[in-house]
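The authors assume throughout that readers already know how a fold can be written as discrete tokens. Each protein is reduced to its one-letter sequence and a matching series of backbone shape codes. I therefore recommend that a typical entry be quoted early in the introduction. For illustration, here is how one protein appears when written out as sequence plus structure tokens:
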Amino acid sequence: MPEPSHDLFEIIATTRSMRRLKPDPVPPELVRKILEAGTAAPSGGNMQRWRFLVVTDPKVKETVGAYYKRAWDETVYPRYSANAPAPGTSPERFRRMLAAAQYLADHIHEAPVWIVPCLEGANPSRTAGSSIYPAVQNMLLAARALGLGATLTTLYLNFEKEAEAALGLPADVHSYALLPIGYPKGRFGPVRRVPLSEIVYGDQWGRPYSS
């Protein structure tokens, strides 16, 4: 079982998407720590309109998981498999990522805990996510710090109305992600990204930035 970590920069550098999760139960006190980390995040005007749905009911997970798998099979996998690997990723690593994503699509309902971050009283918009995704990142980092695996996914939103109905969300609440959480079958990180020199500019677009 992966060891917890207390080094912030190690946590950041090794919080990769963990899509292969064990079905072992996650202690409620750890779920609470993750949720508390989410509520420590900033939100627009500090209004804290976030709401977090914790899902452990197998029937709910099976229903929403079926929509997730349908989105993967019908839309996402065909698109990913037809494209070149992501920047900074070798073809072999890209194939492994696709295999892990396929595993998640097949087994997402088996993850012991889901956290579904929502916003109350807001229509989904380009700016609304600024009041929920910082909380999502905090929760991903907290899960890593506790030795738990997680990933941020929005695939189920291809069937937004059906999935949100299965989750029992009222009309004025919308979900923005789904975080399956559990003890990982693999190891954490390191994450691999393109060099800063390729993506960071100074003062004006296109000008090199030197630190």
